[in-house]
Amino acid sequence: MSFTISHALHSIQYNRTLLKTSVLTNSRMYSEHLFTIPDMQVTMKPTTTTAAETQLLWMAESGFTQSRVAIMTKMEDTLLSHEELLLILMILVKERKKYASPQQTPLLGTRHFVPERTSDKLFGPVIAMGHEWIDIESVDYFVWVKSGDQRIDLAAPPTAHGVSLMLQ
User: Fold this and answer.
1) Could you give phi then psi for residue 59, rounded to 5 degrees?
2) Considering only CA atoms, which of 106, 48, 111, 53 is closest in space to residue 82?
3) Lowest mean pLDDT: which of 49-58, 136-145, 156-165?
4) Residue 67, class by beta-carbon neighbours within 10 Å (0-12 exposed, 13-18 middle, 19+ buried)?
5) How far apart are CA 97 and CA 88, in angstroms?
6) Helix H segments across 1-155?
7) Cβ distance 127 to 133 under 8 Å?
8) Is the pLDDT at 157 greater than 90, yes or no?
9) Predicted pLDDT of residue 98
10) Cβ proximity of 36 and 78 under 8 Å
11) N or C: which end of the chain has fewer CB within 10 A?
12) How far is CA 50 from the centre of its chain?
């Protein structure tokens, strides 16, 4: 996802000597009241001779093992320190069954671990070394976009919502 967004940003025509945009993954974010590591941030910083703060434009957070409540709390805490946020993307991955670690994990190289992927197995469970590592049931996307001067309200319905990979 970060590659796609980065590519899209770099396709926009603007004077890159005046403005630097960045797509950061798993990068620290901190302020006076917050320290967190979101899954992805899109930032913008003027590159003028006058010192300027980096503006946080977008934030993305995804959850495999985190609950929706935990992710929403993290995003609300971020909004308290970064009211300038223009877009928030939340991705919730629902597993068909709760993860269980294998009984024994032999130390093997990557080639032994990577499961075979063919066109008929693109969205099935990931089975390697005789263990089912994950089986995704669905992926929910929620997008909130800032409107006017008001900060994003995560209690309001999202601007956009979609479900992908609803698998039987």
Assistant:
1) -140, 135
2) 53
3) 49-58
4) exposed
5) 28
6) 2-11, 68-81, 110-113
7) yes
8) yes
9) 80
10) yes
11) C
12) 32
Tokens of 118: 């063919």
50 Cβ partners below 8 Å, 6+ apart? none
Question: What span, in angstroms and rounded, lies between the C-alpha atoms of 80 and 30?
Answer: 12
pLDDT at res. 90: 86
Would you state the pLDDT for residue 87?
86
Query: What are the pLDDT digits (tens) for 68-105?
Result: 888 888 888 888 878 888 888 888 888 888 878 877 76
Residue 23, Cβ neighbours under 10 Å: how many? 22
**How distant, in Å, are the alpha carbons of 84, 86, 152, 153 from that of 148?**
11, 10, 10, 12
If 0-12 CB within 10 Å is exposed, 13-18 middle and 19+ buried, where does residue 148 land? exposed
Each residue's pLDDT tens digit, 3-46: 777 767 677 777 777 777 777 777 766 666 666 666 767 777 77
Percentage of residues of the chain with pLDDT beyond 70: 70
